[in-house]
């Protein structure tokens, strides 16, 4: 029996390492968002600062993993074997849940996930115990720490509202004072702004960061709490003087300093406090095992009353956990994706939006605009004009090959960090279970709203994105509770076999998601779909257009062949999947069309005529995708409606067209991949031959109708496929013709 629990412990620690990776990947938004978005320093420097904060916070953490042992459930009501079931269910759920959010690139709260998982698993096991004995569900309160669970839910709702409002208000008045042209004003106000900001971050480190460090005594923490007013006053004075000295004599950019110190502070607090979310459960399981081993009592008879005590975590485990966290920050692509979501939702400049508008976001924006118009009418015109002047954004100075400007400026980045630090410090003082993810994200959204980053062009998409993220937070709580409860039941009744199956399933999902994410990242790099501020010359237009054409042609080539093959086999599942894939092609072309504005603005004076070429090129790509969409959608609907399959002769003719198209598409793809544009004339020479072949098949179908064809639905589908194939060929060769003319003209001007 002891060997069984040792195996479970081993699995729990393997899951803990995985949880560290997926958890840190998601929580990276807490401390990287402002620094990355503002480009205060290089990405390498940001990662070094964050790594130092994480390392200090993790290594010197007190390691008191209270929440896993007694924060949510009452351990004295559970036997050792039941406790181990709860812990295994929690870790499996947490790894799967956080990896799911990482794959979507959405931030969620590791604190909320672990708490609701503990709650779900404990409730599940408690109900099993109740149904085996009294059948009185009211006894559930004897097993669960109801007050703590209620605090978590209340803290979530409160944090979302307060963080958003506080961020918006502070940013609004900061911008009124400093404006977007803040460089000159910082000469006079920089010392005060720096003093307030650094004092707030320093107090945050004292309250939230140092509170969890092992070498800090309880007496020191109590002194800080009792003398907080004096600490705030003296730190304000001290940091104001320091800021003045640094800006006046050493010419230090005080805003960059605030961002770097704030990033370190949040990383320190994150590692010191949130470490429990990743390794707290395995540590609690290990301590439970030690208690049980020393007791000599059967696993099904030992109540875990001793687990309620305070037991520090061994230093070696904290050091190892800190190392894993640091490595994850540096090498996790999913961490970058989660940070990218927060940065894009709060960026000042325009660009492609990740989230689509929905009814709720449109309604919110519509009524907000009506409210804003009503308020502006009340404000005197002179005051309104003065306010508008402070919010005027200077035109970006793009030179050379600058790819992307900062998402927002250093003023907003500083406010993000300062407001988040103050709110988390206040929440800690009031003993509210705040989530650092919720606070930092909602502060960032509030500051972006106040900065007028959500204008008429982007508001519905940004609001939709925020609603998606907030909705995801509540989904986290719901899924964490149900998932852990379900896993606990499965493990309770299935034993070691159930654990083995669930661990294998978790490993499969993690590996699959990792490979899928890597594949998507590679595809995105190949497509080079960055904002069009770097395309400025004829040669670069030619190169970029070649990439776009090759990518779309490659997608159409696959989809056309698969549609014809799957239609021949009447394979509904594969036709449905193929139809969905064409939707991804449509999104690619739509993204390219959405960036036309940036493309035209970035052209140099000698290349402006190329904008007409690029617009027509995208139009032909759109027509090609539309034809492919018609072919895939109608093929799917035909089979989905259980109509008769196409006849052998019809499928054979479609395969002939497919074969010719595959040859054409392969030749075009090779031409644009290798930039061997001399082959374009040979490709165009085949145009009439292909069109004649399709026309011949249309005539053959007309003869069939007159003699043997008896299915109107087949005829409709077949004619539709032939005509759209003809349009696809025409659009493809028109695109090649357009590119050839542009290439010849461009070549003559070089």
TrEMBL record:
Q: Name one GO cellular component term.
A: membrane
Q: Which GO terms describe its molecular function?
A: phosphate transmembrane transporter activity
Q: How does it sit in the membrane?
A: Multi-pass membrane protein
Question: What keywords is this UniProt entry annotated with?
Answer: Membrane, Phosphate transport, Transmembrane, Transmembrane helix, Transport
- Would the keyword NADP be found if you checked this record's keyword annotation? no
Where would you find the membrane-spanning parts of this chain?
6-29, 41-63, 83-102, 114-132, 152-174, 186-207, 227-247, 254-272, 311-331, 463-484, 490-511
Is Transmembrane tagged as a keyword? yes
**Any Pfam family the entry gives:** PHO4
List, alphabetically, the InterPro entries matched. Answer: Phos_transporter
Quote the protein name from its UniProt record: Phosphate transporter
């Amino acid at each position: 029996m002891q060997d069984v629990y040792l195996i479970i412990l081993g699995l729990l620690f393997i899951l803990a390492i995985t949880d560290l990776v997926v958890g840190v990947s998601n929580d990276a938004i807490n401390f990287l968002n402002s620094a990355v978005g503002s480009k205060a320093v290089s990405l390498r420097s940001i990662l070094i600062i964050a790594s130092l904060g994480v390392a200090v916070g993790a290594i010197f953490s007190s390691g008191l993993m209270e929440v896993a042992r007694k924060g949510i459930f009452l351990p004295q009501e559970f036997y050792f074997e039941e406790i181990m079931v709860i812990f295994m269910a929690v870790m499996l759920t947490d790894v799967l849940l956080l990896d799911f959010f990482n794959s979507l690139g959405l931030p969620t709260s590791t604190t909320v996930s672990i708490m609701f998982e503990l709650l779900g698993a404990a409730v599940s096991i408690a109900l099993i115990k109740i149904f085996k004995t009294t059948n009185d569900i009211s006894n559930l309160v004897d097993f669960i720490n109801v007050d703590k669970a209620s605090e978590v839910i209340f803290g979530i709702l409160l944090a979302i509202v307060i963080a958003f409002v506080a961020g918006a208000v502070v940013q609004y008045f900061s911008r009124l004072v400093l404006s977007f042209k803040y460089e000159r004003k910082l000469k006079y106000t920089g010392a005060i702004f720096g003093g307030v900001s650094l004092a707030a971050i320093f107090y945050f480190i004292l309250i939230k960061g140092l509170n969890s460090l092992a070498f800090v005594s309880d007496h020191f923490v109590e002194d800080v709490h009792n003398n907080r007013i004096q600490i705030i006053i003296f730190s304000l004075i001290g940091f104001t003087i320091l800021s003045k000295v640094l800006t006046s004599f050493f010419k230090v950019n005080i805003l960059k300093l605030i961002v770097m110190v704030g990033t370190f502070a949040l990383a320190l607090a994150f590692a010191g406090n949130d470490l429990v979310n990743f390794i707290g459960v395995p540590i609690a399981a290990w301590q439970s095992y030690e208690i049980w081993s020393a007791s000599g009592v059967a696993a099904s008879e030992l109540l875990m009353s001793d687990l309620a005590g305070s037991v520090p975590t061994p230093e070696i485990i904290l050091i190892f956990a800190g190392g894993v966290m640091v490595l994850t920050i540096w090498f996790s692509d999913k961490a970058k994706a989660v940070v990218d979501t927060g940065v894009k939702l709060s960026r000042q400049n325009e660009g492609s939006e990740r989230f689509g508008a929905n009814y709720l976001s449109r309604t919110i924006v519509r009524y907000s605009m009506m409210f804003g118009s009503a308020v502006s009418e009340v404000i005197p015109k002179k005051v309104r004009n003065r306010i508008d002047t402070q919010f005027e954004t200077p035109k970006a100075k793009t030179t050379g090959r600058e790819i992307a400007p900062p998402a927002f400026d250093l003023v907003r980045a500083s406010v993000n960090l300062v407001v988040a630090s103050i709110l988390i410090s206040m929440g800690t003082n009031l003993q509210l279970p705040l989530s650092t993810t919720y606070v930092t994200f909602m502060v960032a959204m509030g500051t972006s709203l106040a900065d007028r980053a959500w204008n008429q062009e982007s508001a519905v998409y940004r609001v939709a994105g925020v609603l998606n993220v907030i909705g995801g937070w509540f989904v986290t709580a719901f899924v964490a509770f149900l998932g852990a409860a379900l896993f606990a039941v499965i493990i309770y009744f299935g034993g070691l076999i159930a654990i083995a199956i669930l661990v294998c399933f978790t490993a499969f999902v993690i590996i699959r998601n990792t490979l899928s994410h890597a594949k998507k990242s590679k595809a995105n790099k190949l497509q080079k779909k960055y904002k069009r501020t770097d395309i400025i010359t004829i040669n670069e237009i030619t190169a970029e257009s070649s990439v776009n054409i090759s990518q779309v042609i490659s997608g159409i080539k696959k989809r056309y062949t698969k549609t014809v093959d799957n239609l021949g086999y009447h394979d509904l599942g594969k036709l449905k999947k193929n139809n969905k894939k064409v939707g991804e092609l449509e999104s690619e072309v739509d993204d390219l069309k959405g960036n036309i504005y940036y493309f035209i603005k970035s052209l140099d004076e000698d290349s402006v005529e190329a904008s007409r070429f690029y617009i027509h090129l995208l139009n032909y790509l759109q027509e090609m995708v539309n034809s492919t969409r018609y072919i895939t959608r109608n093929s799917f609907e035909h089979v989905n409606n259980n109509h008769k399959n196409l006849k052998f002769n019809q499928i054979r003719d479609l395969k002939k067209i497919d074969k010719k198209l595959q040859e054409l598409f392969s030749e075009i793809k090779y031409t644009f991949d290798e930039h061997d544009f001399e082959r374009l004339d040979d490709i165009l020479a085949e145009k009439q031959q292909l069109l004649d072949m399709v026309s011949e098949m249309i005539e053959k179908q007309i003869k069939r109708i007159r003699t043997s064809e008896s299915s109107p639905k087949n005829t409709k589908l077949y004619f539709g496929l032939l005509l759209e194939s003809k349009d696809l060929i025409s659009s493809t060769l028109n695109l090649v013709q357009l590119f050839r003319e542009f290439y010849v003209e461009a070549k003559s001007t070089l």
